Amino acid sequence: MAMPGAVRRIACGALGAALVLLASACSSPPVEGLRGESFSSDQLVQNDNNRLQTMAMRDNLDSLVRLLEKLYRRNPGEWRKAGFSDLKSALAQGDARIRAGEVPKELDGLRDIEVLSVAMDPRYPGDRVAAFVLGLSNMIITAHGGRTRFHVGNSVDARHVFNAARNLEIAAWMLASRRDAQGRPLLLSNELGNGVANLSFEREFGRMIARLDLVAELQDESVRRIGINYLQGLLFFNFLPVR
Question: Residue 58: which residues within 8 A CB-CB, separation 6 or more?
């Protein structure tokens, strides 16, 4: 059925206004201290929950890149095991593999918590830093259904994300406590004593855990609200949408 001229003009005007607002929002200067994201076409098929999940994932992967660098700087022998000539090369490859959710080539066939278990085994002879951090990234991405960006129609299991947060707590404890047969830490991380206090590793884990817990809680709440809204519709005899 053809759209009446007046209705068509109203619709076109509304669309034009929406596009102007969208362009204005995209060009607005960022709030100091906050880090948004440049506009991309896939944001048009993201709801508020999708945006939060996507930005939380982005920030968690950034945290893992920082964790990789911190561990490599404290344990330079690990990147040398992998045959890199310098730290910069090791970090460049590690960054790309973290964001792709890859695992070390020698551990191909293992995933998420399996990789983490091997990484913190004193008998593991490979690059322990890479195995540990790549195991964490693979675990976090797996908990989100294998995705790093989220759109309308994508589902995230709140329980899996919650479990990933608890796994991070376990991994942080292992990093601080696991030792070899001689009683030396498998990886140097936090440092206390002799007037030195370096807890940057612990803080990075804390940030990631908080983001995962927030995503899990909001996802669980959004699923719960669907059921509540349906029951409220029945209770108050509200018509339910059919389109």
Answer: 37, 148
As separate numbers, helices (DSSP H) first and strands (DSSP E) second, the chain gives 8, 2
Sequence-ordered strand ranges (E) for the chain: 191-193, 196-198
Q: Report the SS3 class of residue 114.
A: helix
Q: Which of 1-15, 113-127, 132-146 has the lowest mean pLDDT?
A: 1-15
Q: 120 with 186: CB under 8 angstroms?
A: yes
What distance separates the 2 farthest-apart alpha carbons in the chain?
Answer: 84
d(CA 161, CA 213): 7
More confident residue, 23 or 180: 180
Q: Which residues contact 65 (CB under 8 A, 6 or more apart)?
A: 91, 94, 95, 98
CA distances from 106 to 109, 159, 164 (A): 9, 30, 24
Give the span between the Cα atoms of 55 and 35, in whole angstroms.
9
Residue 197: strand, helix, or coil: strand
Distance CA 149, CA 52 (A): 10
Per-residue pLDDT band at 195 (split at 50, 70, 90) = low
Dihedral over Cα of 67, 201, 134, 81: its sign: positive
Mean pLDDT of 8-33: 49
- Integer angstrom CA distances of residue 175 from 97, 117, 119, 128, 203: 21, 11, 10, 11, 13
Q: Of 135, 130, 104, 141, which is closest to residue 117 (Cα–Cα)? A: 135
The pTM of the full predicted model, rounded to 2 decimals, is 0.76
